[in-house]
Amino acid sequence: MKLYTFFRSSASFRVRIALNLKGIAWEHAAVSLPKGEHTQAGFKAVNPQGLVPALEDGGTLLTQSLAIIEYLDEVHPGPKLIPADPLERAYVRAYSQLIACEIHPMNNLRVLKYIKRTYKLDDEGVNGWYRHWIAEGFASMEAYLLNEKRHGRYVLRDQVTMADCCLVPQVFNAQRYECDLNPYPAVMRIFDECMKLEAFAAAQPMRQPDAA
Ligand SMILES: N[C@@H](CCC(=O)N[C@@H](CS)C(=O)NCC(=O)O)C(=O)O
């Protein structure tokens, strides 16, 4: 199995965690976003969307981190990252999508580059945009946990799921932009618990071979 990944990509980070949790050996194929390798013909032949991650499994190419994680969960043994109970499954998917569909796309590299160029923003302007969507998104993440009351050590009680694979990389991103995460203690407690697990720790950006 080969994962096209960039060390700082949070969507790739989600899949790296899932692969580690499942105990699946994988080959590392680095795609540098700062060098624009994801926009070049070589990688576009792999994923026409020009985004990481992409996972090659037995000659088949899979894209979209949540779809990849669900696929891995369905075809590989190991801890179940998607619960069997329909309501719990909906809860885990909703939490994952809150991050992957509502927060992450607002702050993706191409979005930041576009607003910077088009609206002539300086770094502080871009950071302001970034922090706005983090604050709004993390408030939703915190409120969702407190309202649903299904969390424990992890997003779903004491069972590591796809939702945790999404939560941890988003916290890393927010920390990189020096966002204040003190208002989200439930989120941060789960983050701390996850980071005690080697599957999460080994997937973090600075432990990747392509980390600068
Ligand atoms: N929804 C996609 C998002 C993939 C994505 O946006 N990846 C980012 C890195 S985290 C990327 O390749 N960005 C390149 C760009 O924005 O130019 C997924 O979950 O896999």
% residues in beta strands: 5-15%
Order of helices and strands: EHEHEEHHHHHHH
Bound ligand species: glutathione
Sheet with most strands: strand arrangement: 2-1-3-4
Provide the helix percentage: 40-55%
What is the count of distinct domains?
2
- Tell me the quaternary state: single chain
Radius of gyration: 17 Å
Number of helices: 9
What would you call the shape?
A: globular
* Strand segment count: 4
Q: Could you give a quick summary of the protein structure above?
A:
This protein has about 210 residues and is of the alpha+beta class. The protein has helices at about 10-20, 40-45, 65-75, 85-105, 110-120, 125-150, 160-175, 185-195, 200, and strands at about 1-5, 25-30, 55, 60-65. The chain has a four-stranded mixed β-sheet, covered by helices on one side.
Q: Topology, please?
A:
Elements: E1 2-5, H1 10-22, E2 27-30, H2 41-46, E3 54-57, E4 60-63, H3 65-75, H4 86-103, H5 109-118, H6 123-148, H7 162-176, H8 185-194, H9 198-201
This protein binds glutathione.
Description:
- The model has no long low-confidence stretch (mean pLDDT 97).
- The protein has helices at residues 10-22, 41-46, 65-75, 86-103, 109-118, 123-148, 162-176, 185-194, 198-201, and strands at 2-5, 27-30, 54-57, 60-63.
- The chain contains nine helices and four strands; from the N terminus they run E-H-E-H-E-E-H-H-H-H-H-H-H.
- The chain is α+β, with helices and mostly antiparallel strands and 212 residues long.
- It folds into two domains: 2-79, Glutaredoxin (3-Layer(aba) Sandwich), CATH 3.40.30; 86-199, Glutathione S-transferase Yfyf (Class Pi), Chain A, domain 2 (Up-down Bundle), CATH 1.20.1050.10.
- 53% of the residues lie in helices and 8% in strands.
- The protein binds glutathione.
- Residues 9-11, 33, 38, 51-53, 64-66, 100, 108-110 line the site of glutathione.
